[in-house]
Amino acid sequence: MSSPSERRSLLPSEFGDSTQSACGTSLNSNDDPESTSRKVLERNLLRKLDFRTAYLVLIYILNQMDRNNAAAARLRGLEEDLGMKGRQFNTLISSLYIGYVFMQTPSNLILTRISKPSLYLSSCMSLWGLLTTLIGISTNYYQALSSRFLVGFLEATFYPGAVYLLSRWYKREELGYRTAFFTAGIGISNAFGSLLASGILATMEGFLGYAAWRWLFFIEGYLTVFVGIYGMFILPDFPSGPARWLTPAEHALARRRMEEDSEGHGPAEPTSSGGFSDVLLMMTDWRAWLVGTALSCCNASLSFNMFFPTLAATMGYSPTISLLLCTPPWILSTITAVAVARHSDATRERFGHMVFALLMLMTGYVLAMSTMNFTVRYISLFFMAQAQVSNVILLTWISNTFARSSSKRALAIGFMNCIGTSGNTVSPYIWLSSWGPTYTKSYLICIVLASTCISLCWVFRRHLERLNEAAGAEERELNLTKGYRYLL
Q1: Distances (CA, A) of 349 to 133, 261, 313
Q2: What global pTM score does this model have?
Q3: Are the C-beta atoms of residues 436 and 310 closer than 8 Å to each other?
Q4: Does 241 or 442 have the greater pLDDT score?
């Protein structure tokens, strides 16, 4: 057991409530001209930054469409045309996440060594869009399987990379809301992706000699390529590099904000090698495995979203109507995600908000298990969709907690998201067609996984709470100003 002074070294020093704020300005100097000038400058900086990073939402919308379009294509002959049998469709879904697991950590390590994340992320996006179109010309199961694996390999660069990019510009108390706004693309994608898919699948059958499900991959793939090319000119790079869209004063403030937010964790810019030694340290940190496992359970418990059109189809409607029924739950989910994450930032609390979201998920599963009644099952889809924010809050909590040097933060996000994605890899086998249309076994498995996630996160919360208590006791003993506290 480490001593209070040793534990104190693990905690970054943060200015006390009575003297200074988290961004280093005096709370008693609100009328000071210098303080007022900073607030105006900071407001302008955040407005410009929000405009640039909003493009990540569009990218994420297409990311989710490319990831989930197979479930929609399944309703219009994908399995039959490619000669799939047994559990091959489940393996097709899983193959993307296998590629995802392999690339996440290496990709974030690459990000710490380059100065142009805008070029890197956008190029990978254009490439996975091109591979998505290749699925549309596949003539057998194995061609589609290999293409989807490579799509996952390239998609792995985006989500952890985007979260890391946001963490290099925004302070801890700003990050949850921005991350939720970014990942609101999940709800928007599932809502309007279903509308787009229903339109394509209903109207383009046989056009130019291609099946409608092939056109789904063609259109969404080319849209992804187009958006990726424009992202090279819109996305921001790191604050350590040039930013022509900022004034010199705004750019200097951006760097200063990150230094202030990292006080006690080390400088905001990379100082570690970001190499094998850091990887080894992360792999031997029990907290990384604990939270990574919790993230894996969380992702697996949310796996209903991979089969949302299939679950909607269990209500007995046509493929087009089933896809249209998917839209309202995800529209509400987008609103819920932003509201819950904003409240989480405002209260500086993570665990309770994540539990709230997972309880909604379990409520939806219990309702779905209880009956095949159309109204009840449709209401259950609304409850399930609202829980998507739990993943956002947990990943933001990881970024807040493992936030020492930027290279270590990049490694932490990539490594734990890699563990978390292993849950997505096995998730397709939770939803076997032989268990339908009730999917009772699937719902029970997901309830157990959600409960396990909550339990592991409670252990992590208690650990951080003890570290905060030890830091507080040392401050009182040495008569120090209140310092950094982990968010709980």
Answers
A1: 42, 17, 38
A2: 0.73
A3: yes
A4: 442
